[in-house]
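Researcher: Go.
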Amino acid sequence: MNDIRKYRPGEAASSKVSEERDEFERDYARLIQSPTFRRLQGKSQVFGAGSGDYYRTRLTHSLEVAQIAREVAKRLERTNPFLQKREHPGLIIDPTVVECASIAHDFGHPPFGHKGEEVLNHILLKDHGLKYEGNAQNFRILMFLEKRAGSESGLDLTSAVLLGINKYPFLIEEESRLKGVYGSEWDIIRELRAEWKMPEGCSTLEAQLMDLCDDIAYSTHDIEDGIRAGKIQMNATFFEDQRLIRHLVMEILNDPNKHKFGWEQVDIELMVRQVLSDYLEQWEQIFAECNREESRTRREMKARWVSSFASCLDIIDDPDRGWKKVALVKDGAEDMNLLRTMEILKKLAWVTLIKDFRVLRLQKRSEIIVERLWYSFIDQDKGQWIIPPDWIDSYERRKGNWSWPRFVADYISGMTDAYAEKVYAELFASKSGSIYEMD
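Model: Structure:
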């Protein structure tokens, strides 16, 4: 069982193996020492990277997801006897694997958050019939773009970590598929899944746990940032605003994944009002406990909500798929009410932060930057002279399986927010940079 989980599909059989470290610990070291991991510090979570010292970036978000996931994994190992049986490679939870998956889950995000992802996908699809998607790009980075000593392509991660990152076990090129894995990496992922005898469309328990911990972080930490920024105002006027409630209801109804939450079982508007009312009431109670110190109250609110969600995570049967499911659980069954509460808090963060008109103005600027960078590079005869030589060298060595449009998408998506703005300024703004700056 260990052999199949620790198999490295990209690594040469002759590679030296350290006897001092576990294979998954080697994966962890490869991930946190990779340039892609470091670049996450310069990529937006909600507010633009560099907006302030307080706000989260993709790096701090990923570390927080990893911390939550590892702690939950340790608890589940202790409290679920069936995990000790190790009956199936996909029905095991190893805390280090879950931590690795959490560290790497946002590697594929381009600069400027979801707006950058949206722009790249639109241009690639319209002009070249290709897709761009952050989860798929994760695997392109981990299995192709990243380099390490002794390997020509990728980080050569273990099967368990690769499948632990694979939230969407599908070929993204399939018609109408919005999330998945690019065909170039899917062949290997599909072979691993077949070797593991994974049920079609099902993720490993480790991937499911990472995904839910990402949701926990999103629904708690982003709201903390929003309160700190003044976008979420902790008073009745804000929380009872009819426009806010209407926007939250519309976000729920327009969500393509709304079927997961059983919204037909409740009055959506009534539940939204109740969750907002309870949230404000809890804030006021903790505010009094914290001697009316807002910063302490923010941190305590976040901590309590993380704890309330994480402590309810457990493993139950998924009879529809003949598999197991990591879920928010109450009395042995999925706690749909708590799941809907988490979703309302996620929508609150989205509506108040991402949909804020000032943020949308910044996103429009981001859209212009990504588009103009794209059209500067996409003509290969001209673009090759304004892309760093090491990138061009990599392309020349591997152009047999690397089309120029995908290459340009890879280059732009690897940029931090600040680097994208720097290159844009060099090409289009009346700002002169030094030729001695190192890219």
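Model: The radius of gyration is 22 Å.
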